[in-house]
């Protein structure tokens, strides 16, 4: 069975980015991102009430890592490693089946610069090589063409369309599910 037992949080680096653990000092930026309607347009999740609620989310992320349930990274530029510009991570880890769901978001000031692509490539490699995942899945809102294009660019295949899959803000919404199988398995 899959286990996520890292002795310390795995900091990842790419050419331009550092993917690091969340800190409570990221709360203001994360709050701003999670209440920005441009960023959250296709992320169907309740908005946090205040910065304190986001601090609880960050604590939950870090406890999730310590418990081996998830890995959530802050995306930052190498030249400004303390300034959060986005997040990426693995959630809903299915240990018995060696699967985890990937999710990400990025501040609009950094859209269309290849940042998510760079972060997702590093995260996929880590998931397959270090976490020993067999499958990475992604669940996106059907209107999120930018996310769909990123997933397809990185080899994900659309596996399902779940019609009226979940209820959010008074509506039943559809989900698209994408999957990527570890090429080394």
From TrEMBL:
It holds the Pfam family Acetyltransf_3. Keywords: Transferase. The keyword rRNA-binding does not apply. Residues 17-174 form the N-acetyltransferase domain. It comes from the Bacteria. GO terms for molecular function: acyltransferase activity, transferring groups other than amino-acyl groups. InterPro entries: Acyl_CoA_acyltransferase, GNAT_dom, N-acetyltransferase. SUPFAM superfamilies: Acyl-CoA N-acyltransferases (Nat) (SSF55729). Transmembrane segments: none annotated. PANTHER family: GNAT FAMILY, PUTATIVE (AFU_ORTHOLOGUE AFUA_3G00765)-RELATED-RELATED, N-ACETYLTRANSFERASE DOMAIN-CONTAINING PROTEIN. This is Alanine acetyltransferase. It comes from Pedobacter psychrotolerans.
